[in-house]
Write a structure and sequence with these properties.
With 233 residues, this protein is α+β, with helices and mostly antiparallel strands. The protein is built from ten helices and six strands. α3 packs parallel to α4. The longest helix is centred in the middle third of the chain and has 17 residues.
Length: 233
């Protein structure tokens, strides 16, 4: 099934130059481990202020990990976000509220709760939020905080996994393996299609995304159908 999905998303239909794949603004990075990275990709993708998302492996020492040989790494999501629209503290709030396996659950390293900070400001914010959450969790919090090191992108079939399940839409969006990791449009649709963000938010921005009327109607219908559902993998 995964091979079929990948085939559709690497086909090259006639290009629609109006599709909003690229957003040229100054961004900052954030990296989180919150369990299975498919759900996180959808959760953050439709969050206002998120410009790009990609999932991968980080936090360990194993060279060139992959899904079948992840070594001592953790599944993480790397975000490019607009700090003028969403703050790092707001990202941390979403991080704490959306762990698939819980914050106090003993889990294997692959799905560990993890914050990988990119600068001193992020480190201080992460440690402050961790201290507050530790109190709420009766000192049982298992989240690791560490400096961000090498990020290894996951295989193509993991990128925008929910979007890739909509093969006809995906085929029409001119997505290749690079755009699966860099496209703003792909990040947004990967969330909207599973009900993240809400209809009002989608309707407010759909005119900027460059979708055709048919594409927009399809996404809105799926959003309405799935809104309020869970994001578990």
């Amino acid at each position: 099934m995964l091979r079929i999905i990948r085939k559709f998303c690497t086909m090259k239909p006639p290009t629609n130059g109006g599709l909003l794949h690229d957003v040229d603004i100054s961004t900052k990075k954030a990296t989180f481990g919150m369990g299975c990275f498919w759900s996180n990709d959808s959760l953050f993708g439709a969050t206002n202020g998120i410009i790009r998302t990609r999932v991968g492996y980080a936090g360990g020492t194993t060279k060139n990990p992959n899904y079948r040989n992840i070594g001592d790494h953790t599944e993480v999501i790397e975000l490019d976000y607009d700090p003028k629209t969403i703050t790092y503290e707001e990202l941390l709030d979403k991080f704490w509220a959306n762990h698939e396996y819980g914050l106090t659950t003993k889990i294997k390293k692959q799905y560990q709760s993890m914050i990988l900070y990119h600068d001193e400001e992020q480190r201080l914010a992460a440690e402050a939020s961790h201290k507050a959450m530790q109190t709420r969790c009766n000192e049982q919090l298992r989240t690791e905080i560490a400096p961000a090191g090498v990020f290894y992108p996951a295989e193509d079939y993991h990128q925008k996994y929910r979007l890739q399940g909509h093969k006809d839409l995906c085929r029409s969006l001119d997505l290749d393996s690079s755009k699966l990791q860099t496209s703003h449009l792909a990040a947004r649709l990967n969330g909207y299609l599973v009900g993240v963000g809400g209809v009002a938010q989608f309707d407010e921005e759909v005119g900027r995304l460059g979708l055709s009327e048919k594409q927009a109607e399809y996404v809105r219908r799926e959003l309405e159908r799935n809104q309020g559902g869970g994001l578990s993998c």
